[in-house]
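Re: Re: ligand-bound prediction request (bumping)

Still looking for help on this. To restate: I need the protein modeled with magnesium ion bound, output as structure tokens. Inputs repeated here so nobody has to scroll up.
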Amino acid sequence: MENNLICEGCGVELQTINEKEIGYIPKSSLEKNNLLCKRCFQLRHYNKHETVALESDDFLDMVSSINTTDSLVVHLIDIFDVEGTLLKSLPRIVGANPILLVGNKVDLLPKSTNQRKLKHWLFSKAKEAGINVVDVYLISSSIGHQLDELAVEMEYRRQSKDIYVVGVTNVGKSTFINQFIKRSTGVKEAITTSYFPGTTLGFIKIPLDRDSSLIDTPGIMNRHQMAHYVSKTDLKVITPKKEIKPRNYQLNESQTLFFGGLARLDFVKGDKQTFVCYFANEVPIHRTKLENADSLYERQVGELLSPPDEVTLNELPPLVKNSYRISDEYTDIVFPGLGWVTILNGEVTVNAYAPKGVAVSIRKSFN
Ligand SMILES: Nc1nc2c(ncn2[C@@H]2O[C@H](COP(=O)(O)OP(=O)(O)OP(=O)(O)O)[C@@H](O)[C@H]2O)c(=O)[nH]1
Ligand SMILES: [Mg+2]
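Reply:
Sorry for the wait, this slipped through. Here it is.
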């Protein structure tokens, strides 16, 4: 299209030729003040989501152009899914530019969470992954927690340069930038956001001053994210919407917990103790005897044990078992993108099941 017009909602290049292709805008809408492609328009006004046929590599190539810039990078991750959203390939993507690591969505964590420990843990996770960060912040883009403090830090660190906000799909990059736009101009929801991965399709530049911008970028796909394995309806259920209420289960050995039918934890061996479960409040947790667990799953997955719904079930890889012998107290078994279970006393053997491709991990609890 003439002058390469860009959709203000998602950053895609606009075109008036093919309604089926991304970036379509009816010619008549080009006169409007606010240029939105058909997809953004439908998402905003009808909450209708069209799947985009763009390869994840296209986004990766686009975002990797940051390594040729001189800028500040804000790496946004989802605090509820650190393993799934901390980009190990970040140094390759952003080159030598300084990185601020920002954990988003702290509003979802229980109030009891020790944020100092969490911050410390994020520092060490970044270091472990070979990512050199200048500082770590914990924020909530939706409620604005710590945004003023972060804004000051960003202004100081950027030294008049551009700021790129980079991260895996769905961590809240566009919501984050919308907060800044709202604070400086009063305009709400300037950029399109949604709970589906893959909302932003191109760079969106928000001017900071005459020569520099705050830049939203398309999310990098992480195929191991639970979001890619479940239906839209299920994604709504498993995504926490408000503060998570930990659910406690007193378990004896040879008992099993099902998290819907998407994950499972067997308490194989150990003394009776409390298992504290951190999942979206809408995810049902079902307790059963270990000896009955296999048959219950076979009979009830998609029924009593749901999500998965029918759509997810058609796509869902089989659950894979991981065995852990845990000696330390306060250990978390993490089901990325779904939640985690804190084992208080330790000295246990557990089997943790998640769909093949979603890597279960363990960590020291930050509570
Ligand atoms: N609870 C909570 N949800 C958030 C927060 N920030 C963003 N979200 C939600 O996370 C989802 C994804 O937000 P987006 O801003 O579209 O994420 P994105 O990183 O721009 O996603 P892509 O453009 O697909 O890469 C939406 O449902 C947001 O409402 C937050 O601080 N807390
Ligand atoms: Mg976005």
